[in-house]
Amino acid sequence: MTTRIPLMAGNWKMNLNHLEAIAHTQKLAFALEDKDFAAVEVAVLPPFTDLRSVQTLVDGDKLKIKFGAQDISAHDLGAYTGEVSGAMLAKLGCAYAVVGHSERRQYHGEDDELCNTKVKAALRHGLTPILCIGEGLDTRRAGDHVPYTLAQLDGALHDVGAEQAAGLVIAYEPVWAIGTGEVATPEDAQEVCSAIRGRLAEVYGRETADQVRIQYGGSVKASNVAAIMAQPDVDGALVGGASLDADEFVRIVRFRD
Ligand code: PEP
């Protein structure tokens, strides 16, 4: 049986300037000094403007805390004002790039086709995409959440090969649970995460599917993380609001302690 190391990742969204990022990261590094990073992986996903500051700190911490970007350009270079390429993120030492967060889909019109080009851009530059998928409230109420989420998965992974798929991180983030305080039940999370793994097995084979890490995201807190992490197909959490409180994020990371 494959052992998947849980990934607990903090999505800071558009919060914390570079000075606040330094203080926050220092606090995390200090509080997690004794953590067994081989058993739980910890990553922060700051705004672009904080990446250099975070890199400087975690470099000194021998990269135990990993970091990544909240978005990535579909392009590698050129006249794309405001965009940041995978090459630039890789050069800074990013391990991850979030692709298709629901806030990018909602406010910037990102669709599955664009997510597909961004997933491929990340992979081209040795970054692990954290691909976010998940249904809105109407879809959930209609009972269509599984086919909806799997269609997003299929679209974003079109033409991504099995050798690359094994290293992916998929974040199941029901939109109705993001930033609302309304967390999915552990059973809800398991239902969709297991369907995601099932689809990956159909496309890439069971062995590959068993290596993919599938996170749950949506109002994760220290008080609900353990029950969600106890589900067999949940391999980590993508944490938004609660990751801005260093003490709370540390409690989430220490869900097993
Ligand atoms: C997120 O931003 O990916 C997220 C899950 O946010 P929150 O934890 O605040 O719901």
Task: Explain this structure.
Homodimer. It catalyses: D-glyceraldehyde 3-phosphate = dihydroxyacetone phosphate. This is Triosephosphate isomerase. The active site is at residues 101, 173. It is a single chain. An eight-stranded parallel beta barrel has the order 1-2-3-4-5-6-7-8, surrounded by six helices. The relative contact order is 0.15. It is α/β, with parallel strands linked by helices and 257 residues long. It is globular. The protein contains twelve helices and eight strands. Phosphoenolpyruvate (PEP) is lined by residues 11, 13, 173, 178-179, 217-220, 238-242. Phosphoenolpyruvate (PEP) binds next to strand 8.
Task: State the total count of DSSP E strands.
Answer: 8
CATH topology: TIM Barrel
Radius of gyration: 17 Å
Q: What is the H level of CATH, i.e. the homologous superfamily?
A: Aldolase class I
* DSSP strand content: 5-15%
Major sheet: size, sense and barrel closure?
8 strands, parallel, barrel
Return the CATH class.
Alpha Beta
The stretches of 5 or more residues where confidence is low (pLDDT under 50) are none
What is the end-to-end distance? 24 Å
Structural class by sheet pairing and helices: alpha/beta
Q: What letter string, H or E per element, gives the SSE order?
A: EHEHEHEHHEHHHEHHEHEH
Q: Tally the structural domains.
A: 1
Can you tell me the overall shape?
A: globular
Share of helix, binned = 40-55%
Heteromolecules bound: phosphoenolpyruvate
How confident is the prediction overall: mean pLDDT?
96
What CATH architecture do you see? Alpha-Beta Barrel
* Strand order, largest beta sheet: 1-2-3-4-5-6-7-8
